[in-house]
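tool_call: predict_structure(chain=1)
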Amino acid sequence: MNRAEKLEYWKEWLGRNEAALGDETRKMDEREALYRGEVREIAPLTPRDMKRNGTMRKASHIRNIIAENIESEVSAVIPQPKVTARRQSDEWRAKILEDMLRNELDRLPMETLNDMMERTVPIQGGAYWLVEWDDARRTRSAVGDVTVSILHPKQVVPQEGVFTSVEDMDAIALKLPQTRAYIRRTYGKDVDEGEEAPEARSLERDAEAAEEMVTQIVVYYRNVKGGVGKFSWVGDTVLEDLEDFEARRLRRCRQCGEALGPDTAVCPVCGSGKTEETEEEREELLAGFTTGNGTEIPGTRAFSDEAGLPVKRPTVLPYYKPDVFPVFLQKNVSLFGQLLGDSDVDKIADQQNTISRMETKIIDRFIKAGTRITLPDRADFRVDPEDGEKWYIGNAADASLIGVYQFSGDLSQEMQYLAGVYEEARQALGITDSFQGRRDATAQSGVAKQFAAQQSAGRLESKQVMKEAAYAELFKRIVMLKVAYADEPRPIVAEDDRGQAKYEEFNRYDFYEQDENGNWHCILDEDRFLFSCDASAPLTNNREQLWQEARSMFQMGAFGDPRDTDTQILLWSKLELLHYPGAGDTKEYLEKRKQEQMQVDPGE
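tool_result:
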């Protein structure tokens, strides 16, 4: 197919799979509106619970229990990487990967991304990560780097009928809001189309198109070889058509085939100015390299040809290719037959509606409460304001009609029912007072409160498992891209056993080995590393708790006699490793004092 035919094909595919979503996009908007407390209409609780004109009542006051419960689940903890080598010979590589991933978590805006995912995932039941390699990110010593972003489910059109994972799909489409200047700068094309899908950048279904915005459609698909292709367009303008977009591409001279740099205009060999972009499966290593474990990867070497003449041949290495979609899903809670997980908003939407109705009823009763005065129904009834508001009553019968009544508005039943509905919502999500940090009257002791919090955490553990599974996949994707495209060594910083900074390098050539036939291959193709999250990371990140543990063990004598100088030095050495303020100075003072004592009494 030519480009025009491909454009029509993928437009038809997009329309068909968008139609298969049905009302799902509308539901997404409703969930976001409920979370923000913008839904004022109250669904009737009984058949007659409507206004006299047949319309739904509107809440004048909203207690947003949806936002309250979802916010109580938000965790700012970013899971830390754990890489396990399946072979003992790969342990040094696993250590390098862990250190590199920790550096990447610091470099990338993970705090912002995690904060947004912590809300989008429970609201919608899931959200997508987009992990790409961006060649435009360049420094003086390196070309390209990993970029990580997130996608709202409204921006993703999955393949109809596939509910297991993105990797099981034949294709998946993204609707990305971009500026016209970005399209011109990135693809060198001017687009005149208006913004086709403004709802992709807004939580409003009827969002208005912006003047300088367009909607870029990106489709990732499986090609005939099982790799990943990419087709992208805006309106009727094709931006990218890459049958194998993860393949290495190189600018070469069209006349002699010489490899050219990105800024080279004229071939230095033949002087031709005509170039072409070619897909490369292998690279020629001209200079040798020594891996981190001492393995030599030779560069150009001298050989003898069939005639016995000396020739030079470079070492040939195959380029590693990830062959995975750059998009993957983080679920809230898995459900069979559903791509996105279970939404917390959907679980407690009925309770939110009931609470809004009850709050409206309570407010109405409060407003109507107060003092009421009854008076005779007489036209000549007269009040004289000149002297203490005298009332002139004609007879005793009329005087008996005057009365004062107090309407206090008994709300005990309504408040009790309101509390019950609120507890229903929390129980549906597995949230307790202890988990929310509220006063828990059912747990009297500290141990009981801890147990109640653990029970709640157990019910919410599935969500944490899904989060850690998504981060483990994120770590794996970052490693794949680094090994595939990071040609230059990348500096990384780690910590040694004493907590001191240790400077290393990540080099993709460390992940190449030679087989028994003398051919080089990338070991990532053999799936020799397991990626997961470090379960001890939350504790190691809590320095105050670790300081307290060290002091407690010191007082109990775990380090030795607390009165002994050596024991005190050991304590402050441990605190120095845990970055306790001033621990190094205190340890140095104790060491000097010990030396002075030894000089005074050499027999010690």
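agent: The first strand starts at residue 41 and ends at 42. Proceeding to next step.
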